[in-house]
Structures are given as C-alpha cells and as structure tokens.
Amino acid sequence: MKNPKNRVGHWLGVLAGLYLVVVGTSSAQQLPDSALIRCVSVERDIERSIREPQWRLNRQRTEQRIQEYMQTNRARLRQTDEIIRIPVVVHVIHDQEPGSIGGINNPNISDEQISSQIEVLNEDYRREPGTRGFNTNPVGADTRIEFYLADLDPEGRSTSGITRTQYTQRTSFNPFTDDQLLSNIAYWPSDKYLNIWVCRLSGTYLGIAQFPSVEGVGGLDNANESFERTDGVIIDFRFFGRQTGAITSRIYNLGRTTTHEVGHWLGLIHTWGDVDCGTDYCDDTPPTLDANRTTVCTDKFSNCLGPTTRNMIENYLDYSPDSCMNIFTKCQAERMQAVLALSPRRARLVEFAREGRLEPTDNLTVEIFPNPITNELTELKLDVRFADFQDLTLLVYDARGVLLQTLDFQSLYSRRIPLDVSTYPPGMYFVRARTRLETVTKRFVVVK
C-alpha cells in the first residue's frame, strides 16, 4: 500500500519559489536540458486549490469517485475492446509574421511538427508494436485511447484541426497565470475537443495540463464551469512533436512531454505521488521516492516500504528523458478509462467523437429507416437530433400500448441509434423519444 500523503500541504512551502523561477526566467531556450522541468500541472493545481477552496474539494471528491468506479467496474474496464478516439485541436499562438512558419526558435510551428506529435500520442497510448511506444513489460497496457486532429470545427466546417493566431502583446506565457489569456486568444468547446495550446512558455517548464473533475458535488458546479475554458494542455513549442522543426533539446525531443501532460488531463498522477514515496493510486507502479530528474536512462531505486525497489523510470508519468519512456501500466489505463466515463466534460467529448454523430437541430426530431422493415432484417436505424448534449430516453411500444423496450442515454449528442427488432413479429409499433423538455412519437411497421 503506497503512502497517500497530503500533497497540498507539501507544496505550500514550495509555490513562492516556483513563482520566482517562472518570473525570473523569461525563456527556457536560455537553459540547458538539465535545468528544465517537464511539468507544472501539479503545482498549478495546488495553487488553484489554495485560491479556490471549492476546486480542492472537487479534486478530492473526484479522486474518491475514480477509486469507487474502478473497484466497481474493474472487470469491465479490463475486458472492454472499445477504442476511444479523442478529437484534438492544436492552437498555435505566436508572435511571428503570419507567413513565417516552421524552423528553429519559431513558435509558429509547422504542420509536420504538429502531425509528428499526434503520431507519438497514438504510438504511446496504443503501445504500438514497432515504435518507441511499445514495451514487453507484463504490466504494460494498450490504453485503447487514440487521438486525431479534428476534421470539423465547432461550426461544422471542415478543418485541419490546427488554428494559428498571431499575438504580439507578449513574447512568452506564464504557465501559472496565462491559461485564461491563452483560452481568450483561441479556444474550442472543451466538451467536444481536447484543446492543446502551443506557445513559448516563460520559466523552465515544458508543459502543463488541467486535471479532470466531477460535477454535481456539494454545490461545486460553478467551480467547474469557471475552469471550462482552460480545460486542456499547454506545451512549449520547442518540446511539441518529435525531432523536427523547432525542437532542439537533446533529451526532450520525442514528444513525450505531451504524452505526459495528456496523461494528467486523463487523470493520471506522477508515479511518486508528488511527495516522497507518495501514491499515484496504482499498485502496478512500484513505490517511488521522487522524480527521475536525470538526463540519462540509468536505473534508480527507492526504499519506501522496507525493501529496495527499482523505480519505473520508463513510465510516462515520471520525469525521465523522452528516450527512456515507453509504458502506461494496466492500472493507469483503467484509471484513464474511468475518468473518461466519470468526468462530464470528458464523457461528452467521447460521445461527441463517436461514429454516427449527426448535425444537431433546435428541436427534437426522429427519423426511422427502413420503414417498413421486413422481419428478415434485425435492426432499425433511428436518427435522433436535438440541441447540444441532452439525456434521452427511447420507449418502444406495440400497437396495444405494451412497453417492449426502454433505452436510456446520458449526455447524448445527436446521432444514429440502432434498435434491435429481431424478436418483433409483424405489426405496428411506436417509438417515443423523450428529452427533458420535448417528446416525439414515431410509428414503424414490421412486415413479412
């Protein structure tokens, strides 16, 4: 059993020093690789918890909910074959001339550099054979999570999944305080897209992410909504992607900073639990004293629970050089799957990205086909459309008014829904679609 120490209390004495580092260093470019710090997500989360007590309570409740969900659903989490696909929008924020794209020290990075990062994410999260993301560790896992550059923007228009915005009011952005500014410069709804802002970060940090949270916890809804626009990942442009374009680092050059930060966005915690010998709530990562802050891939060891154990320096949630990293564990994969089910914004994003999505309408509409359907076929298709995300109930009745089926959906987006009618004898039937404010009833016929 790992040690669940008070991570908030541990960091209180450190935050002032971190602010000095951020403010006192204008650009990570001036520092050697050994001085860089991969991640500031936890520090920002602690700072936010101090400033917003409701956020701290919500994060604690979120962890409790994750643990409960994993215990209750562990068998299903381990057996599912579903591949979850995450639509990504990359917001490139730069101070260059619009036509100046790519090259060393240019924050207006190339499409090639961006594409290389999406490739890395998929190799790492899918444990793809023949790539650096593959491992033979018996606790290693394919997370069954994939990423792709969004092909439709929030207005339903075709897109490359990349936005470029010239912003000349500053040359770099503070990872502690400028997340709101970045979202004001460029943002797509965080319940439909994973927003990744790529820019020049001040200080020594490479990336930052917003942890997920649950809603409806003791009146904390407003706390969640106030952070909706900052929900995403921020990466310094010199560490986004793999060995191309603006990337010059010797050890942070394979795109693993983004793999690491997206792990936080999906609810993962550093392997050392952010305190000496702390917990990441995963028993298949060994107890770890602290982060691997070296520039090489040599073994490190910890003595946390008595016997000395080898640190899992190859885990994406350590601070190891990119070339060392190649593993998410089975527990970490289950934890990410739990977060995608529990966090309302994450769950809505997954629903939005599923195949069969339809353009929404202002009012509830239902179309059924084929209609009539022969009893040689087993499945009707229902095109159900409405505004934004809504809870939906489908009720199926026979001609006598006997209820045959009830299907309930939470936070559904307009989509095509299959309806199994394989056991229905020839006759007339009715489907009633019901949202919170509207009800629509449609008839269909089964014929020989």
Automatic annotation (TrEMBL):
Q: Does the keyword Zinc apply?
A: yes
Query: Which positions carry the signal peptide feature in this UniProt record?
Result: none
Q: Which GO terms describe its molecular function?
A: metal ion binding; metallopeptidase activity
Which keywords does the record carry?
Disulfide bond, Hydrolase, Metal-binding, Metalloprotease, Protease, Signal, Zinc
Query: Which GO annotations describe the biological process of this protein?
Result: proteolysis
Domain spans labelled Peptidase M43 pregnancy-associated plasma-A: 187-341
Task: Enumerate the spans annotated as Secretion system C-terminal sorting domain.
Answer: 368-446
List the InterPro entries. Answer: MetalloPept_cat_dom_sf, Peptidase_M43, Secre_tail
| Superkingdom to which the source organism belongs | Bacteria
Q: Does the keyword Glycoprotein apply?
A: no
Q: What NCBIfam families does the annotation carry? A: Por_Secre_tail (TIGR04183)
Record-stated family = Belongs to the peptidase M43B family.
**In its UniProt entry, what is this protein called?**
T9SS type A sorting domain-containing protein
Organism from which the protein derives: Rhabdobacter roseus
